[in-house]
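Deviation from plan, reported transparently: pyridoxal-5'-phosphate complex.
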Amino acid sequence: MVATDEQSKRITERARSVEHSAIRDMFERAAEYEDRDLVHLEIGEPDFDTPTHVVEDAMAAAEAGGTHYTSSAGMPELREAIADRTGADGQFDPETQITVTTGGMEALYLTLQAIAGPGDEVVVPTPGWPNYFTQIRLAGAEPVEVALPAEDGFDLEPDRVAEQIGEDTAAVVLSSPCNPTGRVFSQDAVTEVVEAAAAHDCYVVADEVYDRITYGDHPTGIATYTEYDDVITINSVSKTYAMTGWRIGWLAGPADVADATAKVHGYTSACAPSVSQHAAVAALTGPQEPAERMAEAFAERRNYVVDRLAEIPEIAAPTPEGAIYAFLDVEALSGTSVEIARRLLDEYGVVTAPGEGFGDAGSGYLRISFANSRDRIELGFDRIEAMIEDELRV
Ligand SMILES: Cc1ncc(COP(=O)(O)O)c(C=O)c1O
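Because the crystal trials were delayed, the predicted structure below was used instead.
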């Protein structure tokens, strides 16, 4: 139901400023085609089930009474498991430097609530995940987009980012491996950006939810290799362990930030769901083979995507180095990327995420995800090629 203008006036400016994303628009459009065999290449979550041992441990914990509120910072054993996984040995004190949250999304939300407010700017290299822009605005701050160079496959361009860091900058957000481009920002470039942030005494928010899904030797762990104390690392069990619905994430960073976020968390949701926290302990401390097998499956699909793209000269894309996405340059086709994505859906039955949703730099691109079986990805590419054939090769 859509509210009338009269009803909407009672809703705050803050809530009204939240716009539905271009990706959601595609979800809704796709939902109207109930009877069609659509190929879903828009999905941003692993298509695998949570590893069995994780589910079993969570059930056992629930049966044993692990169903109560926990500390708002998270269960101590989970914070320890997170500290072991994050940063160099002993870099993060589980008691004071980690807050367990309801997914990485809430880690980002709480972080921004703690470090950015009215009058502040937060620098976001783009194309970037749409939640950054909305969450920065919800904190009362202003996002400052820095378009990364398409000709370099959207690698981090330190000078362009540094130029935008000034006295009003509260933080720089780095998404690496990057959603939507699949780039893992190079260590030198990240180090330069972190140095520029340090020179202005501002935070670096390192969103590393895809850090265990990389293809080849691409360094992740920004807080560890830069050794800057004001890096706040955001991560979760969602992507690595196919646990999106369990909603467990965390932030690791300076003690005052961890404390502020835990405090706000205590008033908004008391704590992350306790059964899910048990599940996250099992995921982080139990056998890692299921997660490794999923990462291998993503690597096979990614190689397939790279091979298929090589056969379509009309579409270019940076070679994905991590995450589960390829970002296709479809500028050869006519119209905006929203129009192209709609045509691809309406006429060829493939659902993708239009690049505009990821900031101005994403215009002319479509994001596709590997979170589908090899057969479906193959069918999706057959259909994309049919569109190219019809529209560009006649
Ligand atoms: C770049 C990025 N960061 C953070 C998240 C948050 O994921 P979750 O809240 O499931 O941990 C996502 C989810 O799609 C993402 O793509």
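The first helix runs from residue 5 to 8. We consider this an acceptable substitute for the interim report.
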